[in-house]
Amino acid sequence: MSTIQTKSSPALPKRRRSLHSPLHFLLFALPGAVLYFVFVLWPLLLAFWSSLTNEDAYRAETSFIWFENYVKLFTDPAYLQVLGNTVVLTIIAIIVPNALGLGIAILLDRSGWAFNAMRAVFFVPVILSSVVVAVVWQQLLKDDGLINSVLRNFTPNPPGWLSDPNLALYSVAAIVAWQSVGVCVVLYLAGLQSIPKELLEAASIDGAGPVRRFWTVTWPLLAPSVTIMTVLTMIGGFKIYDHVKVMTNGGPGVGTTSTLAFDVIQTGLSAGAVGYSAAKAAVMFLIIALISMASMKLMKKREVDL
After folding, report:
1. DSSP characters for 53-88?
2. What would the mean pLDDT of 184-207 be, rounded to a whole number?
3. Residues 6+ apart with CB under 8 A from 246
4. At 10, is the pLDDT very low, low, confident or very high (cuts 50, 70, 90)?
């Protein structure tokens, strides 16, 4: 046995040194780097190049026009309306699911089969397809749908949830928020269960009530979960397309519920203006990237490490 150890021990340091060489790091990173370049960076570069041209799906010739698409974009009043719609919808998609998700998570942060069943109930909308959810709610909220049929027992003129230009955007935002609540519940439950019980017990011994324990112990330690969910729901709000396409198709009227993602796809596919659509996609990418980085930087400052 001693002979075997004497022969094998000098080889180990050399093997370890070879595994830590820069060449090995490059070999391990190469497959991931190639996939990232092919499926992420290269499409981004192609989209930016296309945004500098007048490429059109219904015209063969394409020429380089520099930043004309961007000038046209920022001087188009319809685009400003689309941007405003997206901001309103995103704010609702951030505040409502996070507030409801946190409240429900606090109520469900207990053991027992009934609480486990309730967690599953709240998570069901998350696993459903956005198109399926939008179709179901479109049928429920249309003027002669089930909800208005019930409301007609109380009022002769129920709201036009999807046909009223002043109400349709908020109806779509409500459905988007409803479908996002389950994710918030799960993540906030994970955050609540990671908080050491000793800290809460110590606060109770010091005389802190439930509200004071929440603001002095739970809320600061829950900050990482709040940061993640705020950024995720914000990005999801800017990328909403399915719900708008199925429930209102951008209407009623002209662009009253159009969002950035919906406008990009409509411009590229329906109108065939590929270059102009690419410019809109590039601006949307920059907006999401800048707001995400700013949000992460601001919210990270208030996080507390255990």
Report:
1. B---TT-S---B-TTHHHHHHHT-HHHHHHHHHHHH
2. 90
3. 131, 134, 135, 138
4. low
